[in-house]
Amino acid sequence: MTNWFTGFLPYGGAWFVATLIDILVIALPLMLAVAMIIYADRKIWAAMALRRGPNVVGPFGLLQSFADGLKVFLQETIIPSAANRGLFLIAPIITFTVALAAWAVIPFGPHAVLANINVGLLYLLAISSTGVYGVILSGWASNSKYPFYSAIRAAAQMVSYEVSIGFVLITVVLWAGTFNLNGIVDMQRAHVLHFINAFGFNPLLFPMAVVFLISSMAETQRAPFDLTEAESEIVAGYQTEYSSMSFALFWLGEYGNVLLMCAL
Known about the structure:
Layout: H1 2-5, H2 11-48, H3 64-74, H4 85-101, H5 120-129, H6 131-141, H7 145-176, H8 181-192, H9 206-219, H10 244-263
Helix pairs in contact: 2-10, 3-10, 4-6, 4-10, 6-7, 7-9
């Protein structure tokens, strides 16, 4: 793609524009997927509670997430008077940015990856571990005890289950012999043709897959690991004091991480 721009742009400008387009090609469908997974989440929970869920905006309520996004975009951002204004606004930006940055090394095809680096798995572990800073800052900067308690619980949970996820991924690295995500996928494809490994992976790794599933649910605070919203407090966790787009950034980052774990 870069070569296409070099005819009328300097090389640096062509690389920047090409990279920006690649980022948008990943980010825009990801935001669409986040809107749909929020819709699916609400419909499933509604069915479990014998409710209908979103069913008015658009066919079958499919446009409900977009309507909610427009609503929060038009709302006023309210900052508590006792909050640390700078950190209060930076926290959701960190959460959202980290959730997007992790997708830079996820391969969508043989050569369809934004950054095909040899340490892609290490990059994912490093970038995902920084997401806890957004949680801690949001709880502390709110200057309210309930968001602070929730931030402590969420940070402890995220750090704890990152350890188990790391150990699981090490077993995959030992099997594949590389930290490159493209290389790991290629190893799976190579084993598909083998009769013994017909499922495309080493059967000995199946217990690790179960551990990874449980750990990823805890890492993304999915039920029954949604400890950030304590039942005894009746508040929304560390983002209690947030509103409008700052609140939406937390949601986008949270469900972006859910999709990231699904991709892994």
